[in-house]
Give the backbone structure.
Amino acid sequence: MKLAKRLDVVKPSPTLAITAKAREMKSKGIDVVGFGAGEPDFDTPSMIKDAAKKAIDAGFTKYTPTNGIVELREAIAARIQQEHRVSYKASEVLVSCGGKHALYNLFQALLNDGDEVVIFTPYWVSYADMVRVAGGVPVLVETSMDTGFDPSPEQIRKAIGPKTRAVIVNSPSNPTGAMLSRRTLETVISCVKGTETLIVSDDIYDKLVYRGKFENVLDLDPSLQGQVALVNGASKTFSMTGWRIGWTAGPQALISAMQKLQDNSTSNPASISQKAALGALTAPGVGDEVEKMRRTFDERRKHIVGRLNAIDGVRCFDPGGSFYAFPYVGELLKRTAPGASAPLGTDDKLIDLLLEKHLVAAVPGSAFGAPGYMRLSFATSMEQIDKGCDRIAEMAKSLK
Ligand SMILES: Cc1ncc(COP(=O)(O)O)c(C=O)c1O
């Protein structure tokens, strides 16, 4: 069938592909340890479910305004005000079907053909593809574990030019868990201030921070508000991935353009999910649940980083946030698997070997623009983490 050319520039999501493969193996009764999925393994807190049940019982099951119910947009604005000391009107907030949808709408609304978007690598897979499908050009700024995945000021200055329409700031980051330094945030601010360039601050992991305090560009310079889009959502913070609620707070012109697209595509996010998200932001006790999840992730972080660093040929960065470990496995790629005639060579091959022979699902670093690494989500139990690390150690030992 003849299909739209515009999709030729995007690839299927490797994260979703690995997750699907691992799920299929599990459904056949194979005991796979899944480090692939980017979602918390906790149930949604009960107060949030109660808010949704109440909405169903009250018949809150119809269309809502496209941009979301006003109470939810007000609650989002109130939270931003409380956390970052910047004010947004409810009309400057758009609720979408997940953070991914928010970002998709944003790039569709912002970019013209050839417009550049600066992205720090390793980067979340969808950024580059969403930019490309909107006609934009991703400009990648490479970082590595040795600099804490933090770009230098020179790299940032070099990447931002007259064609730059946006810079994406994602800290803590998927896939590395790195927090960008204050120097980096300040450099981005100084490069774009007073220009037509937007800072897209993807704060989706802002509540999953293990060292220091979360900070975005508006904490450093509130006067930049007209040039910033804050993207966030319920998925990671409240363990609500399936409810599909994300949002953007930003300049009115951008929000209205995004809303126009949403009017003509999905319309409103599910009415019941919106009430659940309102419960997440306002119901008493939710904050304690979020903190409990954060502490559990923190224990797992320490454990998995220690276990990975104990494996010969693996060097693991200690993430400041999110729920991903992103070890460097370049040394292992120089080694040869049992029965093979040549070294592994690529992280894709290592990931295949790990899944097929050792029953561990992880995502290759090359999927995030960082060959030589792999991403392990530690949103799984300590028992699974131990079992998976035992298997990775076995795999490493089997290589010659
Ligand atoms: C960096 C980043 N931004 C945004 C999202 C979007 O999440 P959701 O669409 O579930 O809200 C994700 C999810 O994996 C992510 O990792």
